[in-house]
Amino acid sequence: MTNRALSHLGLAMRAGKVVTGDEIVLKVIRSSEAKMVILAGDASDNTKKKFRDKCGTYKIPLVIGFDRERLGTSVGKPQRVVLAVTDQGFAEMISKQVGIMSEVEYIE
């Protein structure tokens, strides 16, 4: 895996600072524990809208990019559509990498 953002995501997962799954991610967004949400670029339009709206309401950075296969592989799990980073330091490390990438279609 050459992508540093995905490597940092894997490191955050091993540190226990990443949660995955629709409902759990929505829960950490509502409780403001999420510092960044990463959504697969191949997620459905409905899912993208739901997380864009929720992250916008709670002012949490949202990154839409990669695909579900690469997101899952980066955290050592099968395909993942949505992930939330719950540590500010990891979120900043990942967002610096994401800012210079061409694969990411949307950063808010």
UniProtKB/TrEMBL annotation:
The keyword NADP does not apply. One of its GO terms (molecular function) is RNA binding. SUPFAM superfamilies: L30e-like (SSF55315). Coiled coil: none annotated. Pfam families: Ribosomal_L7Ae. PANTHER family: RIBOSOMAL PROTEIN L30. This is Ribosomal protein L7Ae. It comes from Paenibacillus uliginis N3/975. The lineage of its organism: Bacteria, Bacillati, Bacillota, Bacilli, Bacillales.
